[in-house]
């Protein structure tokens, strides 16, 4: 039985818990071997905002949408017009994601490329994104690089590191000068598409570059971007203690960066991450400012359903983390009572918070079960009919695409 005082604490935490949705998560995607289509997938930026707005109305937790600049803004388009379009669907522009990996001149890298023209193109595009971010009212620039090499000796790792360091310093300086209140988020990934080395391979490299770039730079932790067996909550605690944790990309993985719905493989791992965040707030009296974001792009699950599942699971595990008896945990830790300390976490994790979540949702005029409501309404089926007809009217033909 959850006590009233604890329930109030959970409600307060959920009120402040916001999760950003990715625009690309509502569009058709696939694998390196082919692109798979869903009738209800979004094929315009307005459709992406519509779907994100729907998830927000169902969950009450997703007021912002991450945008990918080359995918969501047409050349010469007024960024303020895109921001207005988002607001018409009940959401706002969230993190700005530059694209420095798709064009052919990035074949050997972007900021780390041996080709100065590629490095310059990456910088010009990113600085344009800084301007765009200010215009749309965003406060986040989220950088993920595909830079890396496939073979020993392919390029100088030392030169690449030096050029990357200079690039982030220049980006940070531009943000500090022209984009008040903004944060530079720097992501990392141990491999893919570079299979010999990636230039930002782990959280330590990201943290080091953040420190060299400046105070606005923070580490972005993607929950799928770690080698097997990695203790992610340890990384989270370490970054929190250094004031370097900027945000999360929520997903889950079985093997590596599998883009699975959050908590679908290891919900206890998701709980343990939130536990460290809540523990930090308890210890310091300062709830950390963290950008919680989803980074998933499903080609099998219906996209809107997958987003609702992820947000629901994140709310559930975040609520459970609020249930840990922090004082009892501290007493057990001080005594070296390992079993009692572990039980503090397990008891919270094993508590069924579904009734509490439903009560919180009803208090905000939300459906008690957002996924069930989505399915009951038949929205995805109706969107599939409408969007198939719209694509045909535009002369767009969908067929399987293979590499």
From the 3D structure, determine the CATH topology.
TIM Barrel
For the record, the count of structural domains works out to 1
Determine and state the CATH class.
Alpha Beta
DSSP helical segment count = 15
In terms of DSSP E residues, the strand content is: 5-15%
| Helix content percent band | 40-55%
Give me the CATH architecture, please.
Alpha-Beta Barrel
By DSSP, the count of extended strands is: 13
Our Rg estimate from Cα atoms comes to: 22 Å
Sheet with the most strands?
8 strands, parallel
H and E string: HEEEHEHHEHEEHEEHEHEHEHHHHHHE
Name the CATH superfamily classification: Divalent-metal-dependent TIM barrel enzymes
Class from secondary-structure proportions: alpha/beta
Poorly predicted ranges: none
Query: What's the arrangement of strands in the largest beta sheet?
Result: 5-4-1-12-11-10-8-6
- Calculate the terminal CA-CA distance, rounded to whole Å: 55 Å
Q: Give the overall silhouette.
A: globular
Give the rounded overall mean pLDDT: 96
Which features would summarize this protein structure in a list?
alpha/beta; 8-stranded parallel sheet; 3-stranded antiparallel sheet; 15 helices; 13 strands
């Amino acid at each position: 039985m959850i006590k009233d005082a604890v329930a109030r604490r959970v409600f307060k935490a959920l009120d402040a818990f916001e999760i950003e949705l990715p625009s690309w998560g509502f569009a058709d995607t696939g694998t390196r071997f082919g692109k798979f289509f869903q009738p209800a997938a979004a094929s315009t930026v307005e459709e992406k905002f519509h779907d994100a707005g729907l998830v927000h109305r169902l969950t009450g937790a997703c007021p912002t949408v991450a945008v990918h600049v080359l995918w969501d803004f047409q050349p010469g388009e007024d960024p303020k017009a895109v921001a207005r379009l988002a607001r018409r669907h009940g959401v706002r522009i969230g993190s700005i994601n530059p694209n420095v990996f798709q064009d052919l001149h990035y074949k050997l890298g972007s900021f780390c490329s041996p080709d100065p023209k590629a490095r310059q193109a990456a910088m010009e595009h990113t600085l344009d994104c800084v301007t765009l971010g200010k215009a749309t009212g965003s406060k986040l620039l989220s950088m993920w690089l595909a830079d890396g090499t496939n073979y020993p000796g392919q390029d100088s790792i030392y030169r690449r590191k030096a050029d990357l360091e200079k690039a982030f310093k220049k980006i940070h300086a531009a943000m500090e000068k022209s984009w008040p209140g903004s944060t530079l988020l720097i992501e990392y990934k141990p491999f893919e598409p570079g299979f010999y080395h990636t230039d930002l391979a782990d959280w330590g490299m990201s943290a080091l570059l953040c420190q060299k770039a400046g105070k606005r730079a923070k580490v972005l932790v993607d929950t799928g971007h770690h080698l097997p067996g990695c203790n992610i909550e340890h990384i989270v605690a370490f970054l929190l203690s250094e004031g370097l944790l900027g945000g999360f990309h929520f997903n889950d993985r079985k093997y590596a960066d599998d883009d699975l719905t959050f908590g679908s493989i290891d919900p206890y791992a998701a709980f343990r991450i939130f536990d460290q965040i809540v523990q930090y707030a308890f210890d310091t009296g300062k709830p950390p400012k963290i950008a919680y974001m989803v980074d998933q792009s499903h080609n099998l699950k219906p996209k809107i359903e997958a987003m609702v599942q992820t947000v629901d699971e994140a709310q559930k595990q975040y609520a459970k983390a609020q249930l840990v008896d922090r004082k009892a945990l501290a007493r057990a830790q001080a005594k070296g009572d390992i079993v009692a300390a572990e039980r503090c976490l397990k008891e919270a994790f094993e508590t069924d918070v579904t009734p509490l979540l439903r009560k919180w949702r009803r208090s905000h005029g939300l459906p008690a079960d957002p996924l069930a409501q989505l399915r009951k309404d038949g929205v995805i089926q109706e969107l599939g009919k409408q969007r198939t007809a719209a694509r045909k009217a535009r002369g767009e033909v969908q067929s399987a695409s293979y590499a």
